[in-house]
User: Fold these one by one.
Assistant:
Number 1:
Amino acid sequence: MIVVMEQGATEAQVNHVVQLIRELGLRDHVIRGTERTVIAAIGDDRAKNKEHIENAPGVDQVMPVLAKYKMASREVKKDRTVIKLGGTLGAEVGGKKVCVIAGPCSVESREQLLLCAKEVKEAGATALRGGAFKPRTSPYEFQGLGDEGLKILAEARDKTGLAVVTEVMAVDQVALVCKYADVLQVGARNMQNYNLLMAVGEQRKPVLLKRGLSATLEEFLLAAEYIISRGNPNVILCERGIRTFETYCRNTLPLAIVPEVHRISHLPIVVDPSQGTGHAHLVPDMCKAALAAGADGLIIEAHNDPEHALTDGAQSITPKVLSETMKTLKKIAQAVDREI
Ligand code: PEP
Ligand code: MN
């Protein structure tokens, strides 16, 4: 259930309701909106007597949350969540400004990453992507540089001010990745790795949660709920395409999810047209389409030498193409009342 406080309810009244929720054996999550404070009570409340909460001072109403996901739902929080990513360029997702996160699929070397970081920044990105730990379909393919890759990413942040987004694949990597990255990416293959979701929920850095290859929207939001319910509200959803019968592209990129997420959730959503299509020539147009559909950000694979990329070269655009694409994106942003 959620407890909606009256406008102007005092801090003491909010704390009192929190206390009552805890006495019922439920967990509380206080969400402060611009107009009102709402307190979500988490746990099975079906057999609980809620009358005294309804009658507590400062309470406007107590409502059941119909969605299975609670804290990710718009029923609980009407204002859109805005998440600061880190770095020094003001990277933020969920506000008026659309965030561009760009960089190679993998960190391959110091030279490669620093060059790419410099050029995506010049093209207009405010955050840098790059995998140090790579979830590869085959165990014989490049698995990433690991710790060394993280250090290179941190150096790129220090040199450019870009916020660093990188994947964490396992619970025992969370502390290490937190040490170097600004945003923890949970990959599509790990969207239902509940131990990992709980572990990234225990720390406070933003989490970029990618949609699983065969996950429904409800499963996706329930995965976000795992993270938020552990205490980390900074979840950025990422649509990266789903597996269908279609073969002309690597995945099918269902952009209708963007307005739908905005309707049912307050969480920001970014789109990954690189994993979403698998082909560099489709990436610029899908960036445009995603922005027009209301995406809060784009995460784009950009590589200086895609032909020789160790991973995902076929879907990587060059920083030059990114820069060209940004020109059109600026026009689209203006048309949909956003900035980029
Ligand atoms: C990636 O971003 O390079 C990646 C592996 O993404 P996903 O988990 O969406 O496949
Ligand atoms: Mn990739």
Number 2:
Amino acid sequence: MPPKHYVIGLDIGTTSAKAILFTKNGVVLAENEGTYPVYHPHPSWVEQDPYEIEEAAIAAISGAVQKGGINRNEILCVGISSAMHSLICVNDQHEPLSPSITWADGRSVDQAKSAKATFGESLYLKTGTPIHPMSPLSKLIWMKETNYRPYLNAAKFISIKEFLLVRWFNQSIVDYAIASASGLFNIHTFEWDEEALSVAGITKEQLSEPVPSTSICQGLTGQLADKLHLPADIPFVIGSSDGPLANLGIGAIAPGDVAITVGTSGAIRQMVSKPRTDKLQEVFCYAVTQDLWIMGGPTNNGGIVYQWLKEVLGEMEVQQALEQNSDPYDLLTALASQVNAGSNGLLFLPFLNGERAPYWDANARGSYIGLTLSHKKQHMIRAGLEGVIFSLYSIGETLERFAGKPASIFASGGFARSPLWLQILTDIFGQPVHVPVSHQSSAWGAAWFGLYALGEVRSLTDIKDSIPMKETYVPNQNNHLVYQELYKTYRELYYALKPHFKALATFQKNEQN
Ligand code: ADP
């Protein structure tokens, strides 16, 4: 047997599965991505096909192994990360009766609203999951109330990670963090919560067994192992969800370490050593291990805002990028960098997709405020990038109530490909921001859990010495002052516009019907 030098982190994201082949000290040897579509059979429904995700995950892993050009027997294990809040109804053979309904699905807005008004506080204090359409709890209430056929016929309710584990290893288990994010799991007792189950109309036998992140699955069939380009006996370590793993993979584990991730969505998160919730229900608190919880707030409007800007304002750059074989985002970022911090007094509220933290308001809408004849496309793009960060800053203010002022800030996710966006982050927060070489922090966190489960490393915190860092951004004080001034206005705008957002959301809903 050759010595084993490598480890794979598999990250099942919102739009793609990424497999990263790392050396044991965090250097990326190869990475590969398999994408999958998102379906919208009704305006607010957001679904995916579990089998398409499985195929993408297999392709991602096999591609990474082949690109790495190594002997498959040199790989120690695969650690798994996945996006939270997905829900699939399956029969007793674990075959899907429904699509995978994702975190972005908004079908249960009304159910979430009424659940929040009735037992929201009691459930939130126990589960740490704000009552919102993102969570499986709200989706299950919607299924129950609408007699959704897959729900009525389901033997079990599982997430996309559980689907892969049951397909590949015939094991019905779920890690604490994915379980936490369902809204059905008690973060104090590490058990499914009876009150939440009864609200959802299901039993705990219909859910998987919650297990620690170090749990190991083994025994791929020969055929699957061949497809994956892995040995059949390779251990798969269950890992956690993408949020805590991004914190781990970036080294934001100690008190005061804050991780900011901007992928399609975004989040600001901090690890804490005790579960903490309060009646305001503004941030989440999910169990990670028996002595670590993760607190933070998600935004619906991360990189997706830039995607939207690219689509509506960047037609020319998209075309140019095609001709030059370059990246349209880089061309748009170059344009935005021609403009000063603060975009000449143009503010953008990024709530294109409703908003989760800190407002938890599905009716919130995006807006440009302060437009004048002097504003050009570059101002609109820069204001868009700034708006995403202002939103994260406002969530950070809420998080401070529980965890104090950030001591160190770490950034990861697709947005970290843009030095300008990282500088905007640094200048708005007014603190240095550390950026790792690989922006695939969740995958490295998952891989590290794998190494930890196998006894290859001594502790989770030891990862700090194995994160190749790229650079530290330093705040520009002048820009920080500009942003502080504009933020005073930004912070008021949501509240000032809230009734108008509601009226417009109602109008839009009626138009769609
Ligand atoms: P996911 O959450 O699906 O895993 P990623 O972490 O890959 O997504 O992030 C995707 C987002 O990253 C895109 O929506 C886009 O906003 C942003 N992005 C991708 N490339 C660039 C770039 N070159 N410059 C700035 N932002 C980028």
